[in-house]
Amino acid sequence: MRLDLRGLPLLDSAFPTGAFAHSFGLETAVREGRVSGPGELRRWLEASVWAGTGRTDGVGVFCAHAVVSGGGLTSPGSLGEERLQEVDRRLTLIRLARESREGSVKIGRRYVRLAEAVYPEAGIERYRRWIEEGGCFGQAPVVHGWLWAHLGGGAEDAVAGYLYAGVVGVVQCALRLSVVGQTDAQRTIRDLLPDVEAAAGEIVRLRPEPWQMGAACVFQEVAGIRHETLYSRLFMS
């Protein structure tokens, strides 16, 4: 089977969305001693993949991919546009922590600008206009699903790729916080691959609607809320 390289740039940790500046609650957990080594980090990530990011951002990627790959953006004011705008708003407002909510919007808007510059033929300028008009906030999962569909990739790969990039991003945060070393970091990523694959497969199998987004990682949400009270901080969220 030929390896399809078209979507790989979107998964590169060097893709400059600014996500590296956000830990989305992990820094709080580390400072409070709740995540102090590879085992705790793996459990944090498992919870995120299955009950956190997977059930919010993963669903958002799937929904965006479904709209674009299904030809739902053929005309202005279409049901596809309404659906993408609903996904954007739900992805934004579902985040309880202010820092995480604002961080997700910063990353999303940066992703929009990058997508417009690097893949101008994808039509992302329509999303930018929705943001400028106040109909959307700007969310990375929407851009990611949109671009992956435009590049001809499948829904399951789109979701799995996004979740994988999220795992790598959190592991890199853990490295900078000295929770794990380089070797344990790679082991953690390796160990999470089956979870990423299985979670993505389940999302595509269930074909969730935007209203079915919902995270159950209460501790991670609380850690995100408490982040702003830390005495010193390395990350923005």
How would you describe the shape?
Answer: globular
Total beta strands: 0
Low-confidence stretches: none
Separation of the first and last Cα atoms: 40 Å
Explain how this protein is built.
The structure is a single chain. The chain is mostly helical and 237 residues long. The chain has ten helices and no strands. The protein has helices at 26-31, 38-51, 53-69, 79-93, 98-118, 125-132, 140-150, 155-176, 182-206, 218-226. It is globular, with a radius of gyration of 17 Å.
Summarize the helices and strands and which ones pair or pack.
Blueprint: H1 26-31, H2 38-51, H3 53-69, H4 79-93, H5 98-118, H6 125-132, H7 140-150, H8 155-176, H9 182-206, H10 218-226
Helix pairs in contact: 2-3, 2-9, 3-4, 3-7, 3-8, 3-9, 5-7, 7-8, 8-9
TL;DR of this structure?
This protein is an all-alpha fold.
Keyword list:
237 residues, mainly alpha, globular
